From TrEMBL:
This is Pseudouridine synthase. Residues 1-68 form the RNA-binding S4 domain. It is an enzyme of class 5 (isomerase). Belongs to the pseudouridine synthase RsuA family.
């Protein structure tokens, strides 16, 4: 495994930042300062970053049903609950794949596999992500039509999406809409509905690629099977 990948896999930094650590002399292999960015780490090598020994973890993959009010982060300087905190029993140094807003619930992946995380989050890989949104206003085929055509949000072109109107309630001026996208820009779903004049009141991600939350209650998690991980990677490729 290449040294920058090894450092990233150990949860220290991204691969790109790992190269900066090497260039600045903060990485040692077998007691000697490393300068070769292409160095291939073997099972016998002792790798240290700033004096801390790194260990090569096995890759792990989890699916969490994130509750509202939890931050999609490893730690939080304000002391708020984090998704990694929910998985406190996991010994590997995992991190969330992408993010869900603190007030958005639903399916979130966590892993220590940087390549997998990139496959899942890069827009070019077009992994479907399905949400259920409770919006203010009366949703119709007419006012939701721009979703299927591709929209511009803050000057950025958004790919066409698929939707299904689940329920509308004129008396409460509210609607429930299922929306499937394959991108994951910050606040994208909220911004899409806001642009249509249907501000989101409540949002949950119910599916990610071939995964859904049928067997994972709110606030709980489970490890993905080898088959599920392979299917997700194949979808991305």
């Amino acid at each position: 495994m290449r040294i920058n990948q090894f450092i990233a896999h150990a949860g220290v930094s991204s691969r790109r930042k790992a190269e900066d650590l090497i260039k600045s002399g903060q990485v040692k292999v077998n007691g000697s300062k490393l300068t070769d960015l292409t160095y291939q780490v073997t099972g016998n090598d002792l790798v240290e970053v700033n004096g801390q020994q790194l260990r090569n973890e096995e890759y792990v993959y989890f699916m969490l049903n994130k509750p509202r009010g939890v931050i999609s982060a490893v730690t939080d300087d304000k002391g708020r609950p984090t998704v990694v905190g929910i998985l406190a029993g996991v010994k590997e140094r995992i991190y969330p794949v992408g993010r869900l807003d603190w007030d958005t619930s639903g399916l979130l992946l966590l892993t220590n596999d940087g390549d997998f995380a990139n496959y899942m989050t890069h827009p070019s890989h077009q992994i479907d992500k399905t949400y259920i949104a409770k919006v203010e206003g009366y949703a119709t085929k007419e006012n939701l039509r721009p979703l299927t055509l591709g929209m511009k949000i803050e000057g950025q072109k958004i790919s066409p999406a698929r939707y299904k109107i689940i329920r509308t309630d004129k008396s409460k001026n509210a609607s429930i809409v299922e929306l499937t996208i394959h991108e994951g820009h910050n606040h994208q779903v909220k911004d899409m509905f806001e642009t249509l004049g249907l501000p989101v009141q409540k949002l949950s991600r119910i599916a990610f690629g071939n995964l859904n939350l049928d067997d994972v209650p709110a606030g709980k998690y489970r490890e993905l099977t080898h088959k599920e991980v392979k299917e997700l990677v194949n979808l991305a490729k």
